[in-house]
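ok so I'm stuck.
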Amino acid sequence: MHIVLSFNQSVAEEDDQPPSLKQLNTQHTPQDLYAEWDDIETIQAVAEALGQEHQVSLVNADLDAFAKFRALRPDLVFNMAEGLYGGSRESQIPAMLEMLQIPYTGSDPVTLGICLDKLRTKEILTFHQIPNPAFVQLRHASDLPVHFNFPVLVKPTLEGSSKGITDKSLVHNAMELQIQLDSVWSGYQQPALVEEFLCGREFTVALIGNGTAVQVLPIVEIDLSTLPAGANPIYSYEAKWLWDTEIAPLQIFHCPAQLEPLLQRKIEDLCRKAFIHLGCRDWCRVDVRLDASGHPQIIEVNPLPGVLPRPEQNSCFPKAARAAGLSYPEMILSVVNAACERLDLVEKNDAHRCLL
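replied:
not stuck anymore, here's the structure
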């Protein structure tokens, strides 16, 4: 098959931005604006994986993407584009592809938009009685409901990749809460989501497939006891991007996680339910934390998981895949195969393999 890889390539400086991006980027940008985008090494690794079985073209998800998709007319788009601005940014490329009637991997625009919006995600989880921390969206600390007890966790409502979730996001009183609410508002121009803090163990769970047949890969535990002394027990922006480096990686992950069989089944079932009820497709990563009683709850759902290729980069989805016995190319191609089965492109996919 002819597969187009759709991506956003991270840029270090404003001068490195292509002209089509500079047209959009006219205001002061936060330091972590491009945290969700992929570096060139990851883009090349995914392209090489796809290239083991398919013809591959690359399309950067900028203002010229529509014309490129329209001209190329691929059999399938492998979508890992995160977008840049607005609550619909992860939905923009899939919506464009649906307009062009070009099939693509991953979740549809509605699911991508919902999962980026933490408030809407939690409303749907709550409706389906899928456990998740108690929550409220706030602008002023004085509006915190009386049933909330400190500490609480403060997050931007419309961000991913731990953007806006710093070590200071776990707050212990009303003064600290207002400081973080103001920080979210000034940094991201959006209200904050305030959540009950769950004090138990934390895990992240990779899934590949669709519907009831979705496969749960080995569970990754995030060992927060390995964070620097004095750090709050949360997987913050600092923990993900600043303290955990390739030169000095934190020994923060255990995969497979050491779990009692009953707890493992509970976590897997919980993640499958979240995957299905939110309408996720082909692949996803779900973050889970235990409450004080040891019961698992959903804290995040990411239908566009990061896939940094090298083990020392501590990317959780590839880490889970390796524990399942999948190489990096096999992991990427498993997502393609899941999409082909869902889209009834199996015959075309199999015919292309026979030609190799």
